[in-house]
Amino acid sequence: MMTLRKLITGLFITFALSLCFLVNIGTSQETGRKSTLWRVSSGENSVYLLGSLHLLKRENYPLNESIENAFDHSQTLVLEVDMESMTDPRTQEMMLSRGMLPQEDSFDKRISKETYELAREKTQELGLDISAFKQFKPWFFAMTLTAVKLKALGFNPQDGLDMYLFSRAKKSGKQILGLETFKQQLEMLDTLSTVNQDRLVCQTLEDLGVLEQKMDTIVRAWSTGDIKVLESIMLRSFKEYPVLLEKLIIERNKNWVKKIESFLKHKDLKHKDNYMLVVGAAHLAGEQGIVVLLKKKGYSVEQL
Questions:
Q1: In whole angstroms, what is the distance from residue 40 CA to residue 277 CA?
Q2: pLDDT per residue over 85-99, tens digit each?
């Protein structure tokens, strides 16, 4: 159980919930090429929007020069959730207590027979026994299986973009903020209806294969900042699950745009106050993505 707990904790450190799949995205180290980074300007302040891939490998560093420059010119780092809270044992206990079912209930009773059979098949492929997840809530199972798969592919949350920037921000004394609390993120999943939790499991199981199949395409799209290609891949599976798209992506985008506007309007009389905001790349893509929403509000948004 301790190994499983470490896997689960690693996943939630990065909270890659909205994508349900994360791949080995190599960052472009060539100068003169765009990246998945935008600068939003308003008066004296700027907000740098960086599309994140929450788990990477050490070989993916150093980052694109434009990302490093944006980080250096920012006084505040804003992540989906403050990483500092993730090291608190109480946070991990809260995650486990919210993700487990009471003894009289079980995972197979919370999902359809068809979904359960697919889950059994996929766990076997990963060398796991479905019975080990008997007391898991469906959303918790989906997150855990993603963590297991990513671990098998060699990913380490400690090498993720969020953790890399968080560590650098701590060392350099930058202010660090979270767009959401970990409790809010857990509640978002735990309040999904039974039907939508079943759909989340289905989506996750279907997307496990994408981890390897779509790698080359996503690498090229990330390296050149091709948001259209990233949109077609990252938001593909949500087309069959519009309620999940609304809950996990669109609602959060709208809430985060409001916070970005507050950052742009914040004034420090003595210093320029730039922010680097790091969110899952799917949140920047599409007509309901943060980039388009900010443009519609009249802000200057430039891809770097």
A1: 11
A2: 777 788 878 888 899
- Provide the pairing of β-strand 37-42 with 45-52: antiparallel
Could you state, in order of their start, the residue ranges of all structural domains in the chain?
Answer: 2-303
- In 3D space, the residue among 183, 10, 206, 220 whose CA is nearest the CA of residue 114 turns out to be 206
Residues 6 or more apart whose CB falls under 8 angstroms from that of 91 comprise 85, 182
CA nearest to 230, candidates 213, 241, 214, 243? 214
Per-residue pLDDT tens over the stretch 163-199 = 899 999 999 999 999 999 888 888 988 999 999 999 9
Tokens of 238: 């949500």
pLDDT band of residue 42 (cuts 50, 70, 90) is confident
If you count them, how many residues does the chain have?
Answer: 304
Q: What are phi and psi of 80, to 5 degrees?
A: -60, -40
Name every residue whose Cβ is closer than 8 Å to that of residue 63 and which is 6 or more positions away in sequence: 27, 29, 161, 164
C-alpha separations of 82 from 78, 180, 197, 292 in Å: 8, 8, 26, 25
Burial of 89 (0-12, 13-18, 19+ CB in 10 A): exposed
pLDDT in tens, 230-265: 788 777 767 777 888 898 899 999 999 999 999 998
Taking the chain, what is the end-to-end CA distance rounded to the nearest angstrom? 44
Contact 233, 174 (CB under 8 A): no
Longest dimension (CA), the chain: 62
